[in-house]
Amino acid sequence: MRLSLAGPPHFPPINTVGGVMRQVLYALVPGILAHAWFFGPGIFIQIGLATGMALALEAAMLKARGRPLRPFLGDCSAVVTAVLFALSVPPLAPWWIALTGMIFAIVIAKHLYGGLGYNLFNPAMVGFAAVIIAFPFDLSQWLAPRQLSAGLPGVLESLQAVFTGRLPASMQWDAITQATPLDALKTGVAENRLVTEIREAPIFGDFGGLGWEWIANFYALGGLWLLYRRVISWHVPVAVIATVVAVSTPMWLAGPDINPSPAQHLFSGALILGAFFIATDPVSGCATMRGRLVFGAGVAVLTLAIRRFGAYPDGVAFAILLMNMAAPAIDRLTRPRTYGHAR
Amino acid sequence: MTDIEVGEHLYRFPGGLRLRHHKQVACRAPLERLPMPDALWIPLRQHQGPPGEPIVEAGETVLTGQPLTRAADDRQVPVHASTSGRIRGLVEGPAYWPPGTTAPCIVLEPDGHDRWIDAEDPPGRDEEADSLIRRLRAGGLAGLGGAMFPTAAKLRGDWPEIHTLILNGSECEPYISCDEMLMRERPGAILEGGRILARALGAREVVIGIEDQMGAVRRAFDAAAKEHDPDGICRVVQVTTIYPEGGEKQLIQVLTGREVPHDGLPQDLGLVCLNVATAAAARDIVVEDRPVVERIVTISGPGIAEPCNRIVRLGTPVRALIESAGGTSGDVDRVVVGGPMSGLPLASVDAPVVKGTNCILVLREQDVRRIQPVMPCINCGECVRVCPASLLPQQLFHALRSDRLEDAADLDLFDCIECGCCAHVCPSHIPLVDYYRSGKGLLRARGAEEARAARARARHEAREQREAQRAAERRRRREQRERGLDSPDGARDEVRAAVERARRTARNDPEDDS
Questions:
Q1: Mean pLDDT lowest for which of A144-158, A278-292, B55-69?
Q2: How far apart are the CA of A236 and the nearest CA of chain B, in angstroms?
Q3: What integer best gives the mean pLDDT of chain A?
Q4: Does A13 touch chain B (CB under 8 A)?
Q5: Contact yes or no for B156/B168 (Cβ under 8 A)
Q6: For position B121, what pLDDT does the model report?
Q7: What is the dihedral of CA B449, B452, B458, B462, to 10 degrees?
Q8: pTM for this entry
Q9: Mean pLDDT of A164-187
Q10: Measuring CA to CA, how many Å separate B143 from each of A107, B35, B406?
Q11: CA separation (Å) from A141 to A136, A177, B17, B221, B334?
């Protein structure tokens, strides 16, 4: 009898990297469906485009770096990056937006830093930051939600728009696109209009933007499922949401005419998506529990600051990238006290 | 230190895992005695510490319980003949650990009569602490929970008063059920043994920590308490089953809310923690004058046909245990001594059962098959969440993988208890515990190397100092002489002395010139 001398523990772990990533993808499904309901099938085209490019670039980089393809393509981490990126860009963004974004995300942010596990920054957010800086106009072409739209583009119209940049003769860009609620708030406040007045526009819903608030709800649903499955810990989402509420509530109470309500902040833009799916990215985030609280609070404060003072309507992506830089230091400073050691 | 309450409130330790415990499989079968094998291989060293010196010769006949080695101090533990028979010799036999190595064993051929040696000391219970400890040491008592720490060295030492003895009856690892079996079968012996050990320690109270699912065990203790613990110094406390709550440090934390200082011992908190099987063995030594010659071993795991617990004489080859449990089933991949989380793999089933062998676990190929290759760490923090020592396992891994041993030591590598929780939850399937074990080994080797280097340096410096002193002495004398030559009288004296020296040398005078 030849016996294996492998060390303990002897049963293999149940979790796998691919398993974790796939559960993240499953948890995004409700949000994606809600997105498609409110803004049409363009999101599926964006997801398909970004995923295909991410996998192709991932395979090319793995080959160039002499790494095995199968385990690293099978881990689904590139797919998660692609989907998160696709959810951040307008549904009818031209195809080269996805290409540019994925080159920055997969090639530069991920593989040039050493591949899976070694990237300092969240790849999806690096890709998004690159395209929003490079192509601000294309990234502002958001569609009007179903309730306000003259007619959502269908699959064929969307494909044509994405690949040719032109809409069918029956549709006009001006008729189907609209400023996002965060855009409207930013420009409105800049024009010295009151928040209450701005919010009377039809693009605003009960708490946040019309449609957007429901998409955020479905992201939150998926996020709660991830919490239940222990794929993510509660620390980051709770810290993000609690800090947004804690910082924006007093400001809103003090000046409701110039400051949006906490609910408006939470349910517009990418805040809920970021809190549950992007700021919880393990590789570029914190590993200690206290560190995650600090990380989440930092994301919230920076997002609010960028929304209020920055040049961009939403600040989640930049806030996460900034906190990514701080994550290693936060982990060092929040190291738990070892058993038996003095405080 | 008397303000520490043990088991009055239950506390949580950080991290840990809820594991399927798989204990019933072996507990269902009745506890039977394993038939005597053809030969017993009794290792000289069955404890942490140096082995005792053999005191029997090849060809000698011995009786059951007769000492085979002599222990010089509390750190040494003698071994005894597990049955009566003839000594075949002292040979190198397969060792438990490291796998594939050998260790000196006394080979004993049983004569089949199992005649016990006559009691040397009259059995008694009401002795002084020192005489109790002497008897426990002579009886070969070492921690039967698995660590095999010499019990006598735990019972006396340079520490404050011990107020409570904790008996550990919570086998935290899956599959291991030998202690549960013992507690069901011999609760009275454990209570008596606990009282004896408490007397040896001067402790007022005995707290027996068992798992919350062991209702039958609790009832067994309650039923036995009237007869075996009449004044009720023993108390049974059920703790939540979260691996590794049966680790000494974690059980102390659960029962007291206090942590053993990282450079200290449980004794610093006025506590001593021993396994329940150690207590039962202590009772057998003191009350019946029977040294440690057998123990209960769990034979279980998915690769075992009929899992069971057996009473096994020390020195029995593991092969005989597996055969008595119906043999193996399926493609055996490994045989583990201990549990699946922290047990050590065995290189050969010819290795013998020793005092710390609590479980023989047989795993099949499909039980251990990896479903993914080792991937890079994704910093998910699961290991941080489950670490009961509150370490940062992923940072330890990064430090060790890039050979930054000092960084690993700064991250408190030596506080790792090797429970395996981190590796069990790692989605990247990194063999974290292997890294920690090897890192500790390298650091220890380096520490030993540094100590050696420091000794060599000290020797070298001492020699340099001596030489410098000698050189200074020579210089001083020369200068003195030179000063002497400078004065006319001195020069004359010097010349006279030189002439005198020359004469003496010519006469071969033995008198020295200095």
A1: A144-158
A2: 12
A3: 92
A4: yes
A5: no
A6: 61
A7: -140
A8: 0.86
A9: 80
A10: 56, 25, 32
A11: 9, 6, 49, 75, 61
Treating both helix axes as pointing N-terminal to C-terminal, what angle do A17-39 and A77-88 enclose, rounded to 10 degrees?
Answer: 20
Q: How far is B441 from chain A (nearest CA, A)?
A: 14
Burial A272-293 (b: 16+ CB within 10 A, else e): bbbbbbbbbbbbbbbbbbebbb
- B178 within 8 A of B298, measured Cβ to Cβ: yes
A343 vs B: CB within 8 A: no
CB of A328 within 8 Å of a chain B CB? The answer is no
Distance from CA of A324 to the nearest CA of B (A): 13
- Taking only residues 20 to 59 of chain A, the set having a beta carbon closer than 8 angstroms to any beta carbon of chain B reads 20
Q: Which region among A149-163, B315-329, B359-373 has the lowest average model confidence (pLDDT)? A: A149-163
| Among the listed residues B305, B311, B304, the one whose alpha carbon sits nearest the alpha carbon of residue B335 | B304
The predicted-structure confidence for B24-59, as pLDDT tens digits, reads as follows 888 888 999 999 999 999 999 988 888 889 999 999
Chain A partners within 8 Å of B259 (Cβ): 339-340
Mutation for testing the A interface, residue in B331, B349, B365, B372 having most A CBs under 10 Å: B372
Return the bridge partners of B304, or none: B328
Task: Categorize the per-residue pLDDT at B513 as very low, low, confident or very high, splitting at 50, 70 and 90.
Answer: very low
| DSSP tag of B17 | B
- Alpha-carbon gap, residue A19 to A65, rounded angstroms: 24
Q: Which of B346, B367, B380 lies nearest to residue A3, judging by beta carbons? A: B346
Which tens digit of pLDDT belongs to each residue from B412-467?
A: 999 999 999 999 999 999 999 999 999 999 999 998 888 888 888 888 888 889 99
ipTM: 0.89
Residues 6+ apart with CB under 8 A from B411: B391, B392, B395, B396, B399
pLDDT of B325 above 70: yes
Q: Is the distance from CB of B428 to CB of B374 less than 8 angstroms?
A: yes
**What are residue B469's phi and psi, to 5 degrees?**
-60, -45
User: First and final CA of chain A: distance in angstroms?
Assistant: 51
CA distances from A237 to A128, A251, A281, B86 (A): 21, 22, 11, 71
Q: Which residues contact B245 (CB under 8 A, 6 or more apart)?
A: B13, B16, B170, B172, B211, B239, B251, B254
| Cβ neighbour number for residue A206 with a 10 Å cutoff | 9
Q: Nearest Cβ partner of A4 from B334, B361, B428?
A: B334
Look-up of token digits 């940062």: B392
Percentage of chain B lying above the pLDDT 90 cut: 70
- Choosing among A17, A72, A339, A341, which should be mutated to test the B contact, i.e. which has the most B CBs within 10 A? A339
Q: Which residues, 6 or more positions from A28, have their beta carbon under 8 angstroms from its beta carbon?
A: A83, A84, A87, A219, A222, A277
Provide the 10 A C-beta neighbour count for residue A133.
Answer: 11
Strands B40-43 and B102-110, sheet pairing? antiparallel
Q: Tell me the DSSP string of A162-173.
A: HHHS---TT--H
Q: Where are the beta strands (DSSP E) in B259-315?
A: 271-275, 294-300, 308-313
Contact B428 A286 (CB under 8 A): no
Interface test with A, best of B359, B384, B418, B440 (most A CBs within 10 A): B384
Which H or E run includes B436? helix B432-486
Residue ranges of E strands in B169-226: 205-211
CA-CA-CA-CA torsion sign (B10, B11, B12, B17): negative
Quote the percentage of chain A above a pLDDT of 70.
100
Identify whether the C-beta of residue B68 lies closer than 8 Å to the C-beta of residue B97: no
**CA geometry: angle B129, B134, B139, nearest 5 deg:** 125
Q: Which residues of B touch A335 (CB under 8 A)?
A: 392
